[in-house]
Amino acid sequence: MNTSQRTVNPGRFQSRRALVAGGGTGLGRVVARALAAEGATVVVAGRTEATLRETVRLIEADGGRAQAVTADLTDAADARRLVDDAVGELGGLDVAVNAVGILRGAGQAVADIAEEDWDAMLAANVTGTWLFLREVVRAMRASGGGAIVTVSSDLGPHIRIPGMGAYAATKAAVSALTRAAARDHIAEGIRINAVSPGALDTPMSLQPGETEAERALRMKEQSPLGRVGTLEEVASAILHLASEESGYTVGADLVIDGGAAA
Question: Catalytic one among 155, 167, 174, 197?
């Protein structure tokens, strides 16, 4: 993990029990490693066992504790089994992060998006977020509360980019659902917040047929900071929202996009 771009606070999550959905790759892996580095015992979840096991290996190599559970959050029964398994492994849940999300049909206008791409994004980005929230809230009710962070996007809730309308619609739904859930469950001791990253240093930020050099030039022209963000920068924000440092923060949608939505 590139710790040069985030400050590790050993013990901040000591004795905390954390679930990271989408923990096999990308942002989810970085978040899982960061939580473990700060003392949490982590269950990483996703559909691909091999990538989850690699995340566990990396965490254990760093001296942390983690376990892997395969699950598909678009399936209601699987989402419930995932949370039940995580609670069984950990003895409860204090922190849950949903970093699952997909992008299909980039560059296509709303009227041109393929139905299968629309359905896939709705299932992964919206239904998956709802099922995750539903099952994690159920578990946290039983243990007296906790902190949940969902991953949305600056697209949809905050800015518009041509050719990204369908994806933006799903992420706007994620932000709205997160804020509604935050109000619904605050009295149960459950704090729910979202982060909305902008373009990050991942393959998803590349436009069709674009090279990394071309992306760097485009972002220099489009981004007030002149660059894409790093996964570590977003992970730092997620850990802040999940920690006691944010005890008074409920229903926030924290935009992390270098000023693009300002």
Answer: 167
